[in-house]
Amino acid sequence: MAQDNVDVIQGAWDAFAKGDYEAATNIVAPEGEVTAPSTLPWGGTFLGPEGFREFLRVLLTHFKDFKATPEKVLGADDDHVIVTAAVRARTKDGTPVENRSVWIYKLRGGQVVSAEAYADTAQMLKALDSTAAS
């Protein structure tokens, strides 16, 4: 089961990298919750695939370039998958951002029932502040 879950999450990250946001977000169960740090402009808790699409839409509005590349996709147990990712982006004013994030996914029946993102929010907010100051 854990390997199948790893494949589900890897497939979603691959779809995101190709710009296929529909496939990237359809892995979330209708009742699934996706949570990002509330201190970020795109943070909060989002429900279902539609909520995950809204999260991505808001996230991407803050950048002219955004690339998140998984470094490791690990099956932690039968239900959980951990992803460590490198984020490279440019804010709207061109400020480069290099950050890392960790995602913890819980899956049931091949769908995400919860996902939590962790990142260096202070670094991200500093880069976004330079955009606001311009």
What does this structure look like?
- By secondary structure, the chain is of the alpha+beta class.
- Helices cover 35% and strands 45% of the residues.
- It has a single domain (2-125), classed as Nuclear Transport Factor 2, Chain: A.
- The chain has helices at 2-17, 21-25, 48-60, 121-133, and strands at 28-36, 44-47, 63-75, 80-91, 96-108, 111-119.
- It has a six-stranded mixed sheet.
- A hairpin with a 2-residue loop joins strand 5 (96-108) and strand 6 (111-119).
In short:
With 134 residues, the protein is α+β, with helices and mostly antiparallel strands. 35% of the residues lie in helices and 45% in strands.
Keywords:
134 residues, six-stranded mixed sheet, Nuclear Transport Factor 2, Chain: A, 35% helix, alpha+beta, 4 helices, globular
Topology:
Layout: H1 2-17, H2 21-25, E1 28-36, E2 44-47, H3 48-60, E3 63-75, E4 80-91, E5 96-108, E6 111-119, H4 121-133
Parallel strand pairs: 1-6
Antiparallel strand pairs: 1-2, 3-4, 4-5, 5-6
